[in-house]
Design goal:
3 helices, about 60% helix, about 120 residues, signal, elongated, mainly alpha, Lipoprotein
Length: about 120
Amino acid sequence: MKKSIAAALCASLALAACASSPESIEATYISPATYGSLDCAQLEQELIRVGNRVNVVTGRQRSQAQNDAMVMGVGLVLFWPALFFLKGNGGATELGQLKGEYDALHANATEKRCGFEARTAS
């Protein structure tokens, strides 16, 4: 009985520490007014900068989530001490912030009818 309770406790702690997939991380709200003073050229440059950063952080978060999933599988099936090596959601806050910035920039570009196509942040 004690072993099953300990195993359940370890599993629940491990699940809480797993990194989220980048697609499941929601954008943090950033007011479009933050970028209201930028002209279209500046908005385009910021969209490129933030978009590039989103891509970098998304790749790192995806890798972290995959690694955590692998460690979770090994830990639950073969070697429970491996669960202590789960990394958690370190990049989730930054990715949510970047997605919010991208959305705010995109809203400004749309409102100002800038002539470039902005991609949606993933």
